[in-house]
Each structure stands twice: as structure tokens, then as C-alpha cells.
Amino acid sequence: MRTGTTRTGGCQCGAVRYQCADTPLALYACHCTECRRQSGSAFGLSYQVARASFRLLQGAPGCWSRPTDSGGRLDCRFFPACGTRLWHEASPDAGTLTVKAGTLDRPVDLAEAIHIWTRSRLPGVAIPPDAAQFPGEPD
User: Fold this and answer.
1) pTM (two decimals)
2) Nearest to 9 by CA among 114, 86, 97
3) Measured CA distances, 116 to 38, 70, 71, 75, 120 (Å)
4) Residue 1 pLDDT > 60, yes or no?
5) Nearest to 1 by CA among 26, 18, 25
6) What is the pLDDT of residue 4?
């Protein structure tokens, strides 16, 4: 569902719905151990948007906080009933947050993805040669 210059998304069961900017500030394919574990896949997809563009439309997500590889803390929002991870935020004061791209109603274009924490990528995961990539957190 597209509404003007926003995208919509939500959890698997539909209890949580949100909207955010239609165009991300960045799209990250993160190969760190935590993103692989969280996504249950080879990497996690994070759609970074300005916090001001994000709006919770319905539902009450839970929060779980964890330390990051770069030394900070990350608040991870999810819906407890279906277990869907929805978005991450470094702090309530941060100007951005990252929506888990798989929860968007309209799929993202991976051709624009910036690959991060590539030093942790799984063997056999091919990164396009022209893709921006960083062995850890980008500068």
C-alpha cells in the first residue's frame, strides 16, 4: 500500500502497522552475526529513514535492547504475538531509525543496498562487485 510519499508496512499477523518515508536515507544489507541471527538468514535488511518520517499507525510493539558490535545499545521493536522484528533505533534522540525492510508492503530494490559488516559474511554469499561495502560499520 503506497500513500503519496510514504511506504507502509507491518508485522506478519497484521496487528502492527506503520508508515515511513518512501525513499530511504540508506538501505543496508548487514552481514553481522546479530543481524544474521535476528533475520534467520544470511544478512539483515535495514531501511534507514528519518525518525520524523516514521509513524506507528496501529498496534503496540514490544522492545528488546541489546549491545552493538560498535559499543552502543540498540532498541529492537517487535510484535510479541507473531515475533516479527519491525524496526531498530539507536536511541530515542537519534534522528534516524532502521525499518526491517522485509516488513515493508512493497519490496525494496537490493541493487541499492550498502553491504556492511562484510568481514562477518557467510561463505558463498556473493556481493555485487559494484555495491558499496564496508568490513564493519560505515564511517
Assistant:
1) 0.87
2) 86
3) 16, 12, 16, 19, 9
4) no
5) 18
6) 58
